[in-house]
Amino acid sequence: MKDRAHEILDILQSRFALPRWNRSTNDPFRTLIATIISQNTTDKNTARAFKDLSRTFRITPEILAGAQTSQIERCLKVAGLYRNKATAIKQTSRAIMDRFHGDLKNILSLPFEESRELLLQLPGVGPKTADVVLLFCAGKPTIPVDTHVGRVSKRLGLASTDGTYEMIRASLQKLYDPADYAAVHVLLIHHGREYCKARNPLCCQCPIDKLCPSKSMWNKE
Ligand code: SF4
Question: Do 203 and 106 share a structural domain?
């Protein structure tokens, strides 16, 4: 199983370029806010909403905790669920001010499980948002499972078909080295967008079809 998982990763690495991420310049609070905005919307709309928010406010817990919710909402309209997201952003900013002296680094410097637990207590922060911040801003050993990562992992047999978020995360983490976690997350998303689409996966063009137990389910030609 591990060999197959590594073969899949090697092929995806040869197909898709990986971004260069620099943990020291990834601001955890900005990453947290962008990830909250990204829930149930496209990257394009996330970027537009984040840009509007950044034009209106400095993206700091102090500023957003004191901002008017209606003003945050106006910036987020393009990203959908803007009322919920604006409330979550304001409340989580307030909680970071009150509980962590306005600095998420106070959480991220703690051991992994402890920091994850604390992030999950923030309003609007679910497991995926917490794991994105932990992985990309602090290099903690976790694989965020978004909709693409979940679907592709199940079809590839890297996680059980009825796996929950935590089950999928645990399965992937057992198969790969922590040094590859960020690449696994990014590459499974690329693969899910380009080939292993939700409704009509392009199995005939898929670069890892020979390693996929689900191919025959979708390949009806
Ligand atoms: S063969 Fe089809 S189902 Fe399997 S990974 Fe490729 S696109 Fe997805």
Answer: no
Q: Are residues 92 and 122 in the same domain?
A: yes
> In this structure, which residue's CA is closest to atom 2 in ligand 1?
203
Q: How far is CA 29 from CA 60, 65, 130, 147, 165, in A?
A: 7, 12, 11, 23, 23
Q: Pick the last residue of a domain from 88, 105, 138.
A: 138
Query: Residues 5, 159: contact at Cβ < 8 Å?
Result: no
| Domain boundaries, position 165 | 2-18+144-218
Same domain, 160 and 127: no
Q: How far is the CA of 52 from the centre of ligand 1 (A)?
A: 37
| pLDDT for position 1 | 84
Q: Is 214 near ligand 1, meaning CB less than 6 Å away?
A: yes
Alpha carbon separation from 167 to 120, 149, 162, 164, 170 (Å, rounded): 17, 12, 9, 5, 5
The pTM score is 0.90
Tell whether 190 and 148 lie within a shared domain: yes
Cα 188 from Cα 156, distance rounded (Å): 10
pLDDT tens track for 134-171: 999 999 999 999 999 999 999 999 999 999 999 999 99
By most ligand atoms within 8 Å of CB, the mutation choice from 208, 211, 217 for ligand 1 is: 208
The pLDDT tens digits for 61-117 are 999 999 999 999 999 999 999 999 999 999 999 999 999 999 998 899 999 999 999
Query: Measured between alpha carbons, how far is 103 from 136 in angstroms, rounded to an integer?
Result: 16
CB distance 206 to ligand 1 below 6 Å: yes
